[in-house]
Specification:
The protein has one domain: Hypothetical upf0131 protein ytfp. The protein has a 3-stranded antiparallel sheet with strand order 1-5-2. A two-stranded antiparallel sheet has the order 3-4. A two-stranded antiparallel sheet has the order 6-7. By secondary structure, the chain is an alpha+beta fold. The chain has helices spanning 73-81, 107-112, 124-130; strands at 8-12, 30-36, 41-46, 51-56, 65-71, 88-93, 99-104.
Length: 136
Amino acid sequence: MSSDQPLKRIFICGSALQGQPDHANLQFVNFVGTAKTRPNYHLHSAGNGWHPAIYEVSEGGISIPGEVYEQTQEQFDALCANEPPHMYPADIVLENGEVLTAFFYPRDLVEQYNLPDISHYGGWAAYKADAGQPTV
């Protein structure tokens, strides 16, 4: 990555995690480390189990584990273009108070489509492992 471009930090918590099918989408960005969110989110399975659908809640949420990456704006724009339908970038708050960008899913669509709540698994990778679905 060119050092003259400002880097954007993003939080990944689903199908692009290391060991998951879409991780190749992050092959040219910098892995910073693992992190967890504050317990302010719900986690659902969307796209027939292909990707997570997360949204913020005021109570009863979980702390979602994930990975932090740095990328240029150009790389971020390319990542956005490859996100599944309805996913949108928004601020997410980590346990340490850092605010990053993550990809959310509209809560009204989660409710409209009655997407399975998988919050009790504690994270996307745990859900996929328990469901016996292949990882890469």
